[in-house]
Amino acid sequence: MVWIKSLEGSYINVDNILSITFDKKCNSFVAVVGYKDSRLQHKIFQMRALESILAGDKPKSNNEIIEEMILHIEGSRSGDGEKIIDFMKLLD
Question: What residues contact residue 36 under an 8 Å CB cut-off, 6+ apart?
Answer without folding.
Answer: none
